[in-house]
């Protein structure tokens, strides 16, 4: 296959039909969900009524972004075995979420991870610092998704970049603004099913050319590109760079606000653990499939053709779909990739809206005294504002290399969110000042060191060398956030916070009082425990 035979860049009727069908289905879901979204709890957490299996699929749908589908397949196609470093790093983060985060988060919080950090600390400074980290992660993630959407639709549907960004932003605003978490959850479930089905079908069509034997596929890759295509070290050869990237990917997963928010949608901690179990299985399977897609693209399409169409290799999976299934299958895979971006952007927007409405407005501005109708109105206005911001950012960053922004989002999540979250649950001596300094130090140091890194200084600005040698700052910024949180807490003890640690430990393991109440005879209403200011 060569570039002359591809229809990428031209309007694809099949892709447009599948895209319109997906949008129609999801707008129908949004209409159904809007009639069931009357409270803040339903808007942000689907009323806690999502089952473990449903939340597992939604978690997978929220996490498997276009970077996972298009990016990893492209990395494997161009770099061979080393392309798996991102998928392995992301996947290894899920056991961390399972054993350290899921159950305590569900038992201690309400809508955001700041609920957990602020549970026994002073509300205002902690929530302000947490909101800075959350909105920074969400902003950089949104840029990457919106620019990715614009480029994808420009190449797949023959539309202009600006039209694609407006379509993604407009449809996503409808999902979140009217349907809230109920609509977003079902959009993510539908997207996960479509993505898993599409990737599986594509992998089977590739393996059919090699007698359904992956070893024959790998042998062909070795024949075409040499044995180094199955050896590590081509993409990341510096050991410190490898460790730094691994830390950011693994612990960043446990600090992403839109992922953490999903644990509040289930009825109890057992369902939270179960949903991570299902999500891990689905995501692990998906990454195994992308391995087949990457090698299939390198062998069937060819690395030369892949880089001609897109220098970064992001069109490898779509080129492969066209090569093995023709233009109609290319259209289906293109529409699935577009659905992937829509679902992830909706989840990101909702988590940003929760930080603005729940953390900043309700607890900082209104000191926890905001009535229900006001909270819901502010939540919807926040969603609208973030949706418009996503469109503006997508238009502003047109043509930019945004790959580093995904790495930055994970580095910030691992440095700004995860240390404070873990210390607040595990250390009695953790204080308000320690939490604030840890979150701000992790967030700001990650941003500064990325700006000083080779990714920005050398690759983007064309300078001969960078002030900071590592492309990903996780190796420096994550330990730094832990260190400053520990030192500042030691220097500024907070007896009241330490005194409530036993209450935190009990609730972490036993759950909320309302979760533990058995459906027996009518009794006096249970008053849930509320954090002290």
From TrEMBL:
It comes from the Bacteria. Its main location: membrane. GO terms for cellular component: plasma membrane. It is found in: Cell membrane. The chain crosses the membrane at residues 15-34, 55-78, 84-105, 126-144, 164-186, 193-212, 243-264, 276-301, 329-357, 378-397, 403-423, 435-453, 473-491. This is Cation acetate symporter. InterPro entries: Na/Glc_symporter_sf (IPR038377), Na/solute_symporter (IPR001734), Na/solute_symporter_CS (IPR018212), Sodium:Solute_Symporter (IPR050277). The lineage of its organism: Bacteria, Pseudomonadati, Myxococcota, Myxococcia, Myxococcales. Residues 513-533 are annotated as: Disordered. Gene3D superfamilies: Sodium/glucose cotransporter. The keyword Transmembrane helix applies. Keywords: Cell membrane, Ion transport, Membrane, Sodium, Symport, Transmembrane, Transmembrane helix, Transport. It comes from Cystobacter fuscus. GO terms for biological process: monoatomic ion transport; plasma membrane acetate transport. Coiled coil: none annotated. GO terms for molecular function: acetate transmembrane transporter activity; symporter activity. It is a multi-pass membrane protein. PANTHER family: CATION_ACETATE SYMPORTER ACTP (PTHR48086:SF6), SODIUM/PROLINE SYMPORTER-RELATED (PTHR48086). Residues 517-533 have a biased composition (Low complexity). Signal peptide: none annotated. Belongs to the sodium:solute symporter (SSF) (TC 2.A.21) family.
């Amino acid at each position: 296959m060569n570039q002359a035979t591809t229809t990428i860049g031209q309007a694809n009727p099949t892709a447009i039909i599948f895209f319109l069908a997906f949008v129609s289905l999801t707008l129908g879901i949004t209409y159904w969900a809007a009639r069931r979204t009357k409270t803040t709890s339903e808007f942000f957490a689907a009323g806690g009524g999502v089952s473990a299996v449903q939340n597992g699929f939604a978690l997978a749908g929220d996490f498997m972004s276009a970077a996972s589908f298009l990016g990893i397949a492209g990395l494997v196609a161009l770099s061979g075995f080393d392309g798996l470093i991102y998928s392995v790093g992301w996947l290894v983060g899920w056991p961390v979420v399972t054993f350290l985060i899921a159950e305590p988060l569900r038992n201690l919080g309400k809508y955001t991870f700041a609920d957990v950090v602020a549970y026994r600390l002073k509300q205002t400074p902690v929530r302000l610092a947490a909101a800075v980290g959350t909105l920074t992660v969400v902003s950089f993630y949104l840029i990457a998704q919106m620019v990715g959407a614009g480029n994808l639709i420009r190449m797949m549907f023959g539309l202009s970049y600006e039209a694609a960004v407006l379509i993604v932003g407009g449809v996503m605003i409808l999902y979140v603004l009217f349907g809230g978490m109920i609509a977003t959850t079902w959009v993510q479930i539908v997207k996960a099913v479509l993505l898993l089905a599409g990737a599986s079908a594509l992998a089977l069509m590739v393996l059919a050319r090699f007698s359904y034997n992956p070893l024959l596929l790998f042998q062909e890759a070795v024949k075409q590109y040499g044995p180094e295509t199955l050896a590590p070290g081509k993409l990341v050869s510096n050991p410190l760079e490898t460790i730094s990237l691994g830390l950011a990917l693994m612990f960043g997963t446990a600090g992403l606000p839109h992922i953490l928010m999903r644990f509040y949608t289930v009825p109890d901690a057992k369902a939270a653990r179960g949903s991570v179990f299902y999500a891990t299985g689905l995501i692990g399977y998906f990454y195994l499939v992308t391995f087949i897609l990457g090698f299939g693209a390198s062998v069937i399409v060819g690395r030369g053709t892949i880089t001609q169409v897109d220098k970064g290799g992001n069109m490898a999976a779509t080129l492969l779909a066209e090569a093995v299934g023709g233009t109609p299958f290319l259209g289906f895979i293109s529409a699935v990739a577009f659905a992937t971006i829509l679902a992830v952007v909706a989840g990101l927007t909702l988590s940003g809206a929760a930080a603005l409405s729940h953390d900043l407005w309700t607890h900082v501005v209104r000191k926890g005294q905001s009535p229900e109708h006001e909270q819901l109105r502010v939540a919807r206005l926040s969603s609208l504002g973030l949706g418009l911001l996503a469109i503006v950012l997508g238009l502003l960053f047109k043509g930019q290399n945004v790959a580093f922004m995904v790495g930055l989002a994970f580095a910030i999540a691992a440095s700004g969110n995860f240390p404070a979250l873990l210390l607040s649950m595990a250390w009695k001596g953790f204080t308000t000042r320690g939490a604030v300094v840890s979150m701000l130090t992790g967030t700001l140091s990650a941003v500064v060191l990325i700006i000083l890194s080779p990714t920005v200084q050398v690759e983007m600005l064309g300078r001969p060398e960078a002030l900071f040698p590592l492309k990903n700052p996780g190796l420096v910024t994550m330990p730094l956030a832990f260190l400053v949180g520990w030192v500042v807490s030691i220097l500024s003890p907070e007896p009241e916070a330490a005194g409530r640690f036993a209450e935190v430990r009990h609730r972490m393991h036993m759950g909320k009082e309302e979760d533990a109440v058995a459906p027996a005879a009518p009794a006096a209403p249970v008053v849930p425990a509320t954090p002290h200011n």
